[in-house]
Amino acid sequence: MTRGVTRRPLIGLVIPAAVAVLFIALPLIGLLAHVDWSTLPSQLVSTDVLTSLRLSLECSIIAVAIALVIGVPLAYLLARTSSPGRRVLRGLVTLPLVLPPVVGGIALQTAFGTTTPIGTVLQHVFGIVLPFSTAGAAMAEAFVGFPFLVITVEAGLRSRDDHYEEVAATLGARPWRRFWRVTMPLAAPSIAAGAALCWARALGEFGATITFAGSFPGTTETLPIAAYSSFEGSGQVGEAITLSLLLLAISILVLVVLRDRWLGALR
Amino acid sequence: MTLNAQVRTRLGSLHLDCDVSIESNITVAVLGPNGAGKTTLLRVVAGLLPIDEGRVEVNGTVFEDTATRTWLTPEARRVGFLFQDHGLFPHLSVLDNVAFGLRARGVDGRTANARANEWLERVDLVQYASSRPSALSGGQSQRAALARVLVTDPQALLLDEPLAAVDASARLDLRRALREHLATFAGVRLIVTHDPLEAASLAERVVVLEDGHVTQDGPFAEVSSRPRSAWIARMAGLNLLHGAVSSGAMLLDDGSSLTVATDVQGPALATIQPRAVALYRRAPDGSPRNVLRCTVDGIDPEGDRWRIRLTGQFPLVAEVTPAAAADLRLAEGGEVFAVVKATEIDVYSV
């Protein structure tokens, strides 16, 4: 099909569009311009940076694990049931996406804080204290990240009907076998994409984590929190920039891994 | 071994209400237009769709009986279902696909793979054992799906439009191959199709299902030569008339009358072969012949026989050679006289 006259772009839109590109590009360029490349290698392997990196990886991986265990079943039920409450449920699940993370942190504090009923039971029966602990940081990250997994997996499951499950049933497979041998393998690509998104969000999580878990080096001070503290508190702008660069590199990595899933649809 | 199904169920606008009894060791085709409920019937037998009322039984095992609230899950029914799209799992190799049913029924991996391999040999697909189903052609994937079903030794074999997912050029060979494979299975063989040719070539018995009801049942030759519905008559390429016969005349439902040569009395159906309809520009005389004044509604050239659709007292299709059509100067909207000999009208009781 030939391009029609109406497909010609409006020249007047080029200027705001160029501003948009600069808006994204300039801060990134600024960040790169302020990197002290000579001290970068030594800063990257400094104990402080490595400690926050290890903590960040730990917390974000636990967050993804929590999201997988509870998020995939929820996505499955949202995709395969047609109960009237489903829309409300989906709205509830996606709330953390638009909720200010600080509010999420405060909400977690009010539900699981040491003075709350649940917090008391956790502390006295199981010996678990969530606020201001590594487990709490992981929990805050899971809270903010798991909607990404649920939404992605639900869309993946919804893109197929239950035809292959029917085929498996006529071949003698019982419901759980159908789930593990047919439903899950077919949903694997969307589960992987959802987990990657969830992980990226958990890794960058700041507001909910600092509110619920605070910023204790080695316990709850993850990469973004460490970047903020060194930038704001101790005035070590160099270290803040190094940490930012590290997070930027990870973000780009996620983007590259998922490029076909995200950008493929737009091409 | 038999399959008995009395099914009464509603699904959307479809109201399926049919009783079928299928004996084993012959292939029975459920033939009917799209939306008649053919696939629904198969899904009911396989247990993929519960029914409102009725009973399904295969080889003495009650699968479902709404009167006694009996219900067997699809996995407990041991029914082989060949889906229209073949339903091969895209994430498994061809071998794992064929072994799936055995593994699901608790056969250990080695035995399952060995038996799956045997079947791949039988359907000539051993070289594709480790391929993904996407690497198979339509015919190959059909054979893989058939092997996957037959390796589990099912009690009945249900095939839903088995040749629909195959391109037309390969259909002739596939039909023959399918017939040979079907013959090796001794149980109940039920095939669903909307294509009379497929029913004729694959099945010994044809059950015509229209709008959820069985309208005809018997060998294909009988069903197609004595159609009981407009759909099957059209499929067989025949003109079908409804009416009542008394003393050599058939009074049609629309009030017109035809001279017929038959012993049948009372309500009857009659078929006229399109090539037995002769066309004239002027009304001829002589009897015993039926002369009908008609208008040409449409002309469908089909090879060396042109099908002329006529309207008049009742719609009629005639078949003439292109030369005759030119001679008659046939044109849409033109007037023509259709003549049918009484002996060319096949009359049979309703």
Describe this structure in words.
- The complex is a heterodimer of chains A (267) and B (350).
- Chain A has 13 helices and no strands.
- Chain A has helices spanning 14-33, 40-44, 47-80, 86-98, 101-112, 117-126, 134-158, 163-170, 175-204, 207-213, 223-232, 237-257, 259-262.
- Chain B has helices at 38-46, 94-104, 109-122, 138-150, 168-183, 196-202, 220-225, 230-235, 322-327, and strands at residues 2-11, 14-23, 27-31, 53-58, 61-65, 70-71, 79-82, 156-160, 188-193, 205-210, 213-218, 239-246, 249-252, 257-259, 266-272, 278-280, 289-302, 305-311, 316-320, 335-341, 345-349.
- In chain B, strand 8, helix 5 (168-183) and strand 9 (188-193) form a beta-alpha-beta unit.
- The mean pLDDT of chain B is 90.
- The chains are: A mainly alpha (267), B alpha+beta (350).
- The A-B interface holds A 163-164, 166-174, 177, 181-182, 185-186, 188 and B 46-48, 73-75, 77-81, 83, 85, 87, 89-92, 100-101, 104-105, 148-149, 152.
List the helices and strands and how they pair.
The complex is a heterodimer of chains A (267) and B (350).
Chain A lengths: L13 H20 L6 H5 L2 H34 L5 H13 L2 H12 L4 H10 L7 H25 L4 H8 L4 H30 L2 H7 L9 H10 L4 H21 L1 H4 L5
Helix pairs in contact in A: 3-7, 3-9, 4-7, 5-10, 7-9, 7-10, 8-9, 9-12, 11-12
Chain B lengths: L1 E10 L2 E10 L3 E5 L6 H9 L6 E6 L2 E5 L4 E2 L7 E4 L11 H11 L4 H14 L15 H13 L5 E5 L7 H16 L4 E6 L2 H7 L2 E6 L2 E6 L1 H6 L4 H6 L3 E8 L2 E4 L4 E3 L6 E7 L5 E3 L8 E14 L2 E7 L4 E5 L1 H6 L7 E7 L3 E5 L1
